[in-house]
Amino acid sequence: MMNDRAAKVFIGMRFIIALASSTMFTTYGIYYVTMLDLNPFQLVLVGTVLELTVLLFEGITGVVADTYGRRTSVIIAMFILGLGFVLEGSVIWLADLSSSVPSFAWLLISQVMFGIGWTFVSGADTAGL
Predict the structure, then answer these.
(1) Rounded to an integer, what distance in angstroms lies between the CA atom of residue 121 and that of residue 61?
(2) Distance from CA of residue 29 to its chain's centroid?
(3) Which of 60, 98, 109, 124 sits in a 20 to 30 Å window from 78, CA-based?
(4) Which residues form the Major facilitator superfamily (MFS) profile domain (predicted)?
(5) Is 13 in contact with 77 (CB distance < 8 Å)?
(6) pLDDT at 35
(7) Per-residue pLDDT tens for 5-26?
């Protein structure tokens, strides 16, 4: 059975992830259309890249969690997800700094980071319960 400290950490972590996810999925559509000028096809590609990344990396990150521990996997996940959020928010400035890489490419890179981050945390956060 879980002790009180572990329960509090788990509930706090789940709250933060749920808040970040709901904020992300609610506001990113507006951000994509108004700030990055994405068309419907590009919006579909963004979601497809995210889901394909999850599909490809789910097993690999499961091995990492089993080999190095679930706590390590969750820590790696939070780090990668945080970097994904920072990159996603910085797409406009990155596109201005390097004109050779379009903002859509930076956006797809951030989606790959999100996908890898989610696969590190999926299952590892609840496996210890």
Answers:
(1) 9
(2) 15
(3) 98
(4) 1-129
(5) no
(6) 87
(7) 878 887 887 888 788 878 877 8
Could you tell me if 54 and 48 are in contact, meaning their C-beta atoms sit under 8 angstroms apart? no
Residue entry with tokens 């406009």:
92
Cα separation of 13 and 21, whole Å? Answer: 12
In this predicted model, what pLDDT tens digit does every residue of 44-97 receive, in sequence order?
Answer: 999 999 999 999 998 888 888 888 988 888 889 989 999 998 998 888 888 777
The residue type at 117: G
Contacts of 112 (CB under 8 A, 6+ apart): 49, 50, 53
CB contact at 8 A, 92 and 35: yes
Amino acid at 18: A
128 has a pLDDT exceeding 70: no
CB 67 within 8 A of CB 107: no
Cβ neighbours of 117 (radius 10 Å): 24
Burial of 72 (0-12, 13-18, 19+ CB in 10 A): middle
Amino acid, res. 115: G
